[in-house]
Design a protein that fits this description.
With 357 residues, this protein is α/β, with parallel strands linked by helices. It is 38% helix and 16% strand. The longest helix is centred in the N-terminal third of the chain and has 15 residues, at 95-109. Keywords: DNA-binding, Transcription, Transcription regulation.
């Protein structure tokens, strides 16, 4: 490619005679081999074959200067890599999912990996026909034949899979095991020590097999009710429509009803946030009139009236993002790994005590 003077004394690249900037053009401008340019710009920048940090910087600067746009389809055909990470989260309405996406995005970009979120449960159909460097699937335990679908994807695609499941063992994919069952029982015990009645705020999961009452979090709550001899556990479950806004509206109606709750375990973090806002707007004192414990980590950016007490996993977003990105970068043959996340109590301003238990 020839270069011309733009009148300012600087040398500017001339337009390609072919009308399209190629990888060869980038390599020539950066003064590196075609192979090195390919490694840097194909999402394999973390590989030693991509060269030093200064070499990678030169290649990326040349690509930006020339306006080079990689052909991701051609890369996928050639390398079996899609240049990105897929997060099958099933929703965009959960602060936990948003925080995880932001963490993966930031870590992935340092390896030239983009992040795509699937906001429905059709992860098997998508991943069976797509090429990705890595994919996290979170709803395996809640969809019909989920574990077998993961095994089929592992056998038929080159995507580095991370399965979020308490039912699976690692094979040629990683497994993250994080069960809140014990945490829910401890949350119930903690609140029950101060209240005669502890309620569960849960989403109406009518679209999932078995619905809300078949979900492991609900069954753990019902078992805790039974262990304390507190009668009909299902009567203590308050259902609202899925989603942050619908949870807020349902919580406001609940707070202003004839029997507002005094102690609530929230099925998810986003429901805890919605309940906290609804209580404040309804004139209730927290934790004086109402104590709240969330099941799952609560992103600090979503807490408008002080930290919410919750059971969760320490540094969960960074740890999970690290596993996913590592799976995307290290694509060699390797056995899967089991990553077990233990839950603990993080006291906030929505419970009366500040000591852990």
């Amino acid at each position: 490619m020839s270069r011309t003077d733009d009148g300012s004394g600087r040398t500017a690249p001339a337009a390609s005679l072919r009308g399209t900037v190629t990888l060869s053009d980038v390599a020539r401008t950066a003064g590196v081999s075609l192979a090195t340019a390919s490694f840097v710009l194909s999402g394999r920048g973390g590989s030693r074959s991509a060269g030093s940090a200064s070499t990678k910087a030169k290649v990326r600067a040349a690509a930006e200067e020339l306006g080079y746009v990689p052909n991701r389809h051609a890369q996928a055909m050639r390398t079996g890599r899609g240049g990105g990470i897929v997060l099958a989260l099933g929703t965009l309405d959960d602060p936990w999912a948003v925080q995880l996406t932001a963490q993966v995005r930031d870590e992935g970009l340092s390896h030239d990996l983009s992040t795509l979120v699937l906001a429905d449960e059709r992860w098997f159909e998508y991943l069976a026909g797509a090429s990705a460097d890595a994919a996290l699937v979170t709803s395996i335990d809640f969809v019909e034949d989920g574990p077998n679908q993961v095994r089929r994807l592992a056998a038929s695609t080159q995507t580095g899979l991370v399965a979020f499941s308490t039912r699976m063992e690692p094979e040629n994919f990683d497994v993250v095991s994080s069960a809140p069952t014990l945490a829910i029982r401890r949350a119930y015990q903690r609140l029950r020590a101060r209240h005669e009645k502890v309620r569960l705020l849960a989403p109406d999961l009518e679209r999932r097999p078995g619905g809300t009452f078949a979900h492991p979090r609900t069954t753990a709550f019902l078992e805790a009710v039974s262990e304390h001899g507190d009668g009909n556990g299902e009567a203590l479950v308050h259902l609202v429509s899925e989603g942050s806004h619908d949870s807020y509206l349902g919580a406001v109606e609940w707070m202003r009803g004839p029997e507002p709750p005094e102690a609530v375990i929230c099925f998810t973090a986003y429901q805890a946030v919605a309940l906290q806002i609804a209580a404040e707007r309804s004139g209730l004192s927290i934790p004086g009139d109402l104590e709240i414990i969330a099941i799952g980590d609560v992103p600090a950016a979503t807490e408008y009236f002080g930290p919410i007490s919750y059971y969760g996993v320490d540094d969960v977003f960074a740890r999970l993002a690290g596993i996913i990105v590592d799976r995307a970068v290290d694509r060699g043959d390797r056995p899967g790994s089991l990553h077990t996340f233990d839950w603990e109590f993080f006291p906030g301003t929505t419970t009366r005590e500040i000591d852990g238990a």
